[in-house]
Amino acid sequence: MKKIIIYVLCLMTVCFILPAIFTNTSQLTASSQNIPEKNEAVQETKQPKEQDTVQESTKEATEGKYSKIKLLHLETGEVEEVLLEEYLCHVVSAEMPATFEKEALKAQAMVARTYTIYKVNHKKHDNADICDSSSCCQAWISKEDRFARWEESKREENWKKIEEAVNETKGKVVAYNKQAINAFFHSNSGGTTEIPVNVWGGSQYPYLQVVETAGEEGYTQYASEATFSNEEIMNKLKEKYSDIQIDFTNPEEIKILEHTESGRVKTIKFGNHNLSGVETRSIFGLKSANFEVIRQENQIQFQVKGYGHGVGMSQTGADSLAKQGKTAEEIIHHFYANVEILDSNEV
User: Fold this and answer.
1) Contacts of 41 (CB under 8 A, 6+ apart)
2) Tens digits of per-residue pLDDT, 266-308?
């Protein structure tokens, strides 16, 4: 009988008392080490994700509404959403030689950013903010194509220089009355820039005035010539004016009648028609409307100064100023009157 009682007591100890002891010990160990229960672990897993979302939202707010743009590739018709600052590296590398001074490249970055934001606010394309054509909006080139045109030993160095120019001016926009300006630029002004009304007509932009820049004559873009036979002159003019008549023996038949304030041709006579300098440039493919007419035997030579429409910032002028020790901001203020440089979130 006694053996039976002892056996029962042992069985109760094994079944009830020992599990209770080990359970309490296990709970005490977990508590002392601060080991979370499963629902706490789930909460901790979710927490970083919520923080990441907040950080992303903050980052987006910091970069502002112009952090991304829609870029239209005209050749393929593809519309690509790209980061603005990344896009600008491709623009600057397409628009200005990487050999130019760093401050000139920084000025170009600010102008390109400003021009882009102006286009975003004054859309020309229904499905995009801006396109990749210089004849329509602004030049753009892929990194691969840009590298292919650079000397191999200079590729990484050139791209780094351009990235630095963009990053060091990040968010900086040229503004007039707190709005991004229509930041025109061109290759070489021939020493003096032009006002828009003499190129495109219409209303004037108060921040785009005639300014002089020393040092541009040292660049290859400064001077060029174009020579046409009398027959070629007639044929090109007939494409536009079928009734054109010119007596090439009379020196008064081809004659510049008027210049603009910047020294470009405003009006030129070709026989029985008077043309603007801008139209003449277009018809004969001249690099600028700043030209002289030299009559030679059976041919006409145009001696041209500058390259481009001449409005806004001259790129070679910017490089010349940078070589003289001017900063990017000083270059901007040289070419654009009464402007201020603001953050993109302020325009």
Assistant:
1) none
2) 999 999 999 999 999 999 999 999 999 999 889 999 999 999 9
In this structure, the answer to whether residues 190 and 110 fall within a common structural domain is yes
Q: Looking at the structure, do residues 100 and 238 belong to the same domain, yes or no?
A: no
Domain count of the chain? 2
Q: What is the pLDDT of residues 140-161, one digit of tens each?
A: 999 999 999 999 999 999 999 9
Total count of residues recorded for the chain: 347
pTM of the entire predicted model: 0.80
Q: Are residues 88 and 179 in the same domain?
A: yes
Q: Is the CB of residue 129 less than 8 Å from the CB of residue 189?
A: no
- How many angstroms separate the Cα of 141 from the Cα of each of 84, 87, 309? 14, 9, 22
* Per-residue pLDDT band at 236 (split at 50, 70, 90): very high
Is 296 in contact with 240 (CB distance < 8 Å)? Answer: no
- 261, 210 Cβ separation under 8 angstroms: yes
Residues 275 and 167 in one domain: no
Q: Is residue 264 part of a domain?
A: yes
Contact between 212 and 310 under an 8 Å Cβ cutoff? The reply is no
In a domain? residue 295:
yes
C-alpha to C-alpha distances, 30 to 24, 27, 34, 347, nearest whole angstrom? 10, 5, 6, 58
- Together in a domain, 242 and 163: no
Confidence of residue 247 (pLDDT cuts 50, 70, 90): very high
- Does 228 share its domain with 204? no
Check: CB of residue 313 under 8 Å from CB of residue 107. yes
Predicted pLDDT of residue 267: 98
